[in-house]
User: Fold these one by one.
Assistant:
Number 1:
Amino acid sequence: MPGPGPTNSLTDVPGVRVGHATRREPGWLTGTTVVVAPGAGAVAGVDVRGAAPGTRETDLLEPENLVDRVNAVVLTGGSAFGLAAADGVMQSLYADGLGWPVGAGAGEVVPIVPAAVLFDLGRGGAFDHVPTAQDGRSAYEAASAGPVPQGNVGAGTGARAGGLKGGVGSASWVLEDGATVAALVAVNSFGDAVEPGTGLLPAQRFGYPGELTTGIPNEVEVRAARERAATTYAEQPLRPGLATVIGVIATDATLTKAQCRRTSGLGHDGLARAINPVHTLLDGDTLFTLAVGDRPSPELPALHALMVAAGDCVTRAVGHAMLAAESVSNGVTDLRSYRDAFPSAFAGASA
Amino acid sequence: MPGPGPTNSLTDVPGVRVGHATRREPGWLTGTTVVVAPGAGAVAGVDVRGAAPGTRETDLLEPENLVDRVNAVVLTGGSAFGLAAADGVMQSLYADGLGWPVGAGAGEVVPIVPAAVLFDLGRGGAFDHVPTAQDGRSAYEAASAGPVPQGNVGAGTGARAGGLKGGVGSASWVLEDGATVAALVAVNSFGDAVEPGTGLLPAQRFGYPGELTTGIPNEVEVRAARERAATTYAEQPLRPGLATVIGVIATDATLTKAQCRRTSGLGHDGLARAINPVHTLLDGDTLFTLAVGDRPSPELPALHALMVAAGDCVTRAVGHAMLAAESVSNGVTDLRSYRDAFPSAFAGASA
């Protein structure tokens, strides 16, 4: 029976590890998340749909280009400065002897580490407190195959989703043929991940029963949230680079680079269903897809089902990010979590 | 005050004309829709997001390519055979002296007519009854600046939306700065434009109050529709090219080719919110954007608002297509309209 995997997170894909480096000491509110591929790496693709992206090593993912395996993907705060975190992940992989073999010797490898950034500059207080290579190394060292820590961690530490606190979220799905697909996102969107008229998470409609919230937000909370959201944008006029949702989809099916890219495209539809608006001029929304290839290459119906499930995993991962996020009030950034803004959405919940 | 334009359709954009050629005589169920740009043409862009597209003249729309104005866009049934309809539109434009000037003489022009097709082969009974150049000429001759006929007309004549009858739909929005943006789509999707759990049109949440339906579909109708949808796909296994949503966004703002393409991208988010799944391996979903340029080039906040409204227009246009579609039962194709499948969704409506 199709349903979420054991941890309902990205690490349900065998061999995939996730690590966070979280910087929330005074003056800081940022971090880095690394997704580490098993062994010799995973086949990968990317779809960049936001108009203000910050990325590295995405050109090699074009289907016609040579390199067809990546060793890790870095998602990070710090806007384009945060790209430095990938340097640290490269160094750690190199030390472990992992990378694209370019020389005669066993250790002569170039680790392939695509990366995408989100904008959180200044949210901790200091504009220049951004992730560095050291944060990349820390995230790599923290990488684990266990359940993925979510909320205000790693790349989601300083994230904002519309007028609320954003963060990292993840979800998985096991398909009818036994293949697993999963998504991890860092939600830092210009648009809302909450329906302004109802206070519900749009993700709600795409989760299985009971996965997300259990109650209906009351009108007072809905009105208050709408007013706070309006204030957020009144105080911070439209500027490019304010936002960006970044993420990784992974599967144990065998896919080509081009199929990985198409899967990322369906993932962006999942974003569109969870967040409105998204992919705007102010977002740099970027989704990677990794295929670790433990299972055979799917025929069309199974491939279709996998891509559709990837989109739903992204939608549900956004919902999980909103549920896991925690309010932040540090004197510079004052953002409520979904849980604090809509306590009545959890009426009747056991936990 | 922002709101829909006078006709709530594509022709609210000054100078834009829409014409349909509808082929529903015995053995036929297909047609062609043409969107004619005013005067010397409109700046245009395209975003092809489905995995099984059928198009012509889309490469010239790449921002780096020379031609920056198109004279018309053809949306047509007939799968790739239907591309012939664009020949007829070219001939008609040429006869009117309209096109890209390539020679010294006034009439030495090449009309620029991008086109996209949807799959409806065999739905009228005969596989080879497809639109031809004559249908392109007929659609061009029928082009009018009046309210756009919607439903089972033009490219929407043979369209199917998941388990229901699809069709042509259109919607418009006048922005705070006075610019108009509008969309026209021919909905022929693999995925549903109806929420399987509720029978509601997802577009409902993106329309202004009272724009779409007024009631809540009852449980009996919802269950019956789900069962019919399941049968539709059981009888017709997954094959590439079964589906495709095609459309045109238009605005009177001045945009670059690249901005037109980005607007089409936000339009695809509008599709993702109205139809689930969409952009699959079985869809060839393609959206053009035309900027007729009567108004000045918008600054960032206005451009952002225009692109977001374009996405909402696409969502609402899908809703209008579903409401305007009529049931078809011709011995080969047996598809109910949304109105016939969910009469209770119209409870309390005056018309």
Number 2:
Amino acid sequence: MNTLDLLIRAIARLPGLGRKSATRIAYHMLASDRSEAQRLAELLHTLHDSIIRCSVCGSFTEDDPCPVCTDSGRDRATICVVEHPQDVAAMEASNEYHGLYHVLGGVIAPIEGVGPGDLAIGSLVRRCTEPEIHEVIIATNPTVEGDTTALYVAQQLENNTNVAVTRLALGLPVGGDLEYADRLTLARSLRGRTSLGRD
Amino acid sequence: MNTLDLLIRAIARLPGLGRKSATRIAYHMLASDRSEAQRLAELLHTLHDSIIRCSVCGSFTEDDPCPVCTDSGRDRATICVVEHPQDVAAMEASNEYHGLYHVLGGVIAPIEGVGPGDLAIGSLVRRCTEPEIHEVIIATNPTVEGDTTALYVAQQLENNTNVAVTRLALGLPVGGDLEYADRLTLARSLRGRTSLGRD
């Protein structure tokens, strides 16, 4: 098997890519300037050395603690709890949240052998015993596991700290279509309906 | 901008990938074992040194001439003409063709400034003056440029050699749906209809 086939195989293993798209990417690399492949190779080579986990919040960062954790301009009374480091990037992209983060590193999933002890819940509780923290927004995914984890985390925080615990709203996605909304989403968006005009 | 952002940018420039899928891939890399990123880096690093163009047919190969051009077990009387090296891989995957190849390196596209002189047409004509070549199958894409190029190549071969020139059949794709077939494809599949049962 030659380098090209090996490269196609390696690319096809990446999430969201199959053999066809991997082939297309590999041939594109070959047809383009050598420097493009070299640059990507260099970035991949140094990736694990330059990007580490923030010892406070668990995000990926080049410096420890991460720029968010050390930014005195942010709202240091609020912590947003997410499953994965990439969720931090998604929240940041919304430009709506200006507080701190805490990455759990996954969700409670007994079938996959992931219990509360495998997640960064203890360190979250410890962070929330600091008097400056007022609110924890739980932003785990709206899935069975995400909801279970949210409930568990909320319970731990309520038992051990004085922070207010909230959860991201569920409802119709912006630009969505009522006709195509699933039953559960529609039910949750009804239950969580907000008043118009008078508040 | 840190390594992670640079990596996401570099991946997002690849064909078929956008910022979201690039982000997903980059975080997957970070979350997986370091060896996976290292292996991909190594393959990309050596890609342009280990894969070259075959001096006979123009395919990508590790050895020159390529394994297809030197394989005495293949049908050496037929040459299949394709636009790009990846088309050779597609033809090979069909398991139906056992002859030789010739990669043009593109199509005639005056708007993009690509004329016949920029394609490997001269070398194809030279190959076809060899008495062992009997047939040239033109397998350029069924697009305006692909058809123009096919006609031009056919003319060159007819003027300068004695080979028979054929073109891949046009028609409905296997597993396709008449209802969703476009007008032109349907027209071509009608014009090229084949007899059933009696031949």
